[in-house]
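The following record pairs a protein chain with its ligand, s-citryldethia Coenzyme A.
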Amino acid sequence: MKNKTEKKGSAQLTINGKTIDLPVLGGSVGPDVIDIRTLYRDAGVFTYDPGFTSTGSCESQITYIDGDEGVLLYRGYPIDQLAENSSFIEVSYLLLHGELPSAKELEEFDWTIRRHTMLHDQFDQFFRGYRRDAHPMAVMVGTVGALAAFYHDSTDINDPKARTIASHRMIAKMPTIAARAFKYSVGQPFISPRNELDYASNFLRMCFAVPAEDYVVSPTLARAMDRIFILHADHEQNASTSTVRLAGSAESNPFACIAAGIASLWGPAHGGANEAALNMLEEIGSVDRIPEYIKRAKDKDDPFRLMGFGHRVYKNYDPRAKVMRTTCHEVLDELGVKNDPLLQVAMELERIALEDPYFVEKKLYPNIDFYSGITLRAMGFPTEMFTVLFALARTVGWIAQWSEMIEDPTQKIGRPRQVFTGATERAYLPVSKR
Ligand code: SDX
């Protein structure tokens, strides 16, 4: 990666009677940044920004979000145009390489991914160590981390060829691992990937086919699955991507870094929100109970939040949620479940929340997780699998961000500091004197 920030000016900071100049750097779009790398050396102070609400952790050329305008670009291409016209494999190539592939490049990339979908025969033993009712995200964290035990030939992060092979292996094998986590939870035999199927069709077949009969993938559901993968593929420096980057900055192998990302994504405040949103809709149960939950969401003393609403960056409608909403209606129409009571609750909850002053003032709009849960449940996935599908799709984003970090000449091991408010130095007291 070639660093492309340019100096736009400087900011003066006066502290403890000393004024220092800090360079202001600009990118191609978005807010300028104040380069504070010399701050501690020159002024003896740290910055303080819990949750990193005003902190840029890196330079990146992959994904750009304008939260106020509800804009999401993958390598400059708007998410709605990619969801409408592209495929997950083509978007994966774009995220990894920075440009849309030629027909030949796409064919070669697709061929490579299709031929890395199988797992080592011994790998299946890992699943059998879990209880059948284990949360599939627990299975994903454990099994993806274990990939490093099988692919020593692609764990040398300083070898570009090894990084490419590891990247292809991760992208190709995640659907096979995710489908196995699902099959294991329902006590059905694992279904082998098929090279003649496209990425989304292969995944749906590994999830829903049974050896007792042939399984034909619905083109509408395959298209919807592929679009859902596109929507979830990358999203700037979110919590799980930052986790992957931090683990990667310590030169951990890519499989371990992705396992760390899965662990972070699992949280209900992050990727676990699709599961939490559906559970919330089921708990609300009917339209007439919505006011009670809206009241709880506003109550500062009640930890309840409307799952699927709000976002750290989007202070406008999440552009992915718009596409997800359309996809949701297409899937429900295809499956003939247009009158899903949960959809009625979701539509009414969205209508009320978009009019309620509390949500309007705090700019709390539905995010991608609000409609994805309803769609995935209609497609036959149990609620616990929703975040697994999110992790499957986000793997290419994590890999692209991890690769960019490794190739960034300015990258160093991530090591934040703190403001310490604990006990200052004191002498040990023997127990007889306490
Ligand atoms: C994802 O970062 C990414 O990019 C993530 C993601 C990705 O693709 O990687 O987009 C995926 O994680 C989407 C978000 C999914 N999470 C949820 O849907 C869970 C519910 N949402 C909230 O937990 C919350 O909105 C967060 C965690 C998403 C954001 O939390 P913030 O940054 O604290 O939200 P904020 O600062 O904008 O909150 C402003 C106010 C606060 O109240 P005050 O302190 O100002 O009084 O709004 C309140 C919050 O308490 N608030 C909510 C709310 N979300 C924020 N109140 C009720 N219901 C909510 N959902």
